[in-house]
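Lab notebook, bench 4. Still working through the backlog of constructs that have no structural model yet. Next entry is a single chain of 179 residues. Request: give me the structure tokens for it.
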Amino acid sequence: MPLPGWAGCRRQDLLGLLAKLEEQIKPLEAAVEKAAFAHPQARLLMTQPGVGAITALAFVMTIGDANRFQRGKQVASYLGLIPREHSSSGQQRLGAISKQGNSFMRLLLVEAAQTAVRRDEGLRKKYQHRCHSKAKGVAKVAAARKLAVRLYWMLRTHTAYPEIVHNESSSRCPMAGAS
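Model written out:
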């Protein structure tokens, strides 16, 4: 759609700038892909739908050795994906997330969770159920927390996505003893 005068000129300038930036980004994306495929733990995490090379590498680098955490709740706390608590005189009040961890990792997990919700039936059901009673932002963060815990267990047990989902759905197979 043609824009008259300066507006059309400005749009052309911005589209030219976008093309230059995309040229500079392509080699960086290729380098990240190469590094992710060279790292066995990142490759394992990329079996989860919605988790790409950047998210997988960032998660592996942020978490480090997965065995240093005993539970998924500790990972969620480390990443700042748990509610902040305000308690006094026997009353417990839970607020927004604590945001104490790596903010970039939280951003990546929320973005990955939005994609995973579309491709993973289990995450989708929990997300949609939460959307009925809570705000969409709360549901997205909850899905990111669930995804972070799943990625942690994938690292801890060295288990790929299809098998980890099968283990999650099985009540007879405790994951804590699988390490």
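Notes after review: The first strand starts at residue 83 and ends at 88. The first helix runs from residue 5 to 38. Flag for follow-up if needed.
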